[in-house]
Amino acid sequence: MYPGKIIRLFISHSWDHNDDYESLVQLLHKIKNFEFYNYSVPEHDPLTADGDKELMQELCEQLRGCHVLIVIASMYPSYSEWIQKEVLIANVYGKPVLGVIPRGQKRISKFVITYADKLVRWNSRSIHHGIRELMENDNRR
Question: Considering its fold, how many domains does the chain have in total?
Fold first, then answer.
């Protein structure tokens, strides 16, 4: 994709639905010739903010440093205030948003449909191509 370049990804997710997040991270690790740094906020290493305002500032810093924001396009983002905030922060910083549709998902979040620059299916090839396409388009801006 980009030889020698480590792609910085922020995977927006809810700790209440951590299994999808973990599965997606494992899938990303299986992509050949694809190195990435995970800018996400995992449950085992939370941000150390005192209050919502400070948390928002820390999320802004995390998202500012990423190349692509990935959102799992289940229904949960439609109801998660923080996932929505992460997507809106990414938009403010001009970060492309990749929506990943989980296997077997019949309903997709309208919020993700509205804000994703690209939607892909839950497989390594689609996700890899989606990230590459978004980064190439982002480099042309």
Answer: 1
Residues 6+ away with beta carbon under 8 Å from 5: 35
Domain span holding position 72: 7-139
Whether the CB-CB separation of 90 and 68 falls below 8 Å is answered with: no
Q: Which residue has the tokens 């500032």?
A: 57
Whether 1 is in a domain gets the answer no
> In the chain, which residue ranges form alpha helices assigned H by DSSP?
18-29, 52-64, 81-92, 110-115, 124-139
Using alpha carbons, select from 1, 5, 3, 22 the residue that is nearest to residue 13: 22
pLDDT digits (tens, 9 = 90+) for 39-80: 886 555 555 666 778 778 888 888 998 999 999 886 555 556
DSSP bridge partners of 38: 9
Residue 27 lies in a domain: yes
What is the pTM (predicted TM-score) of this model? 0.86
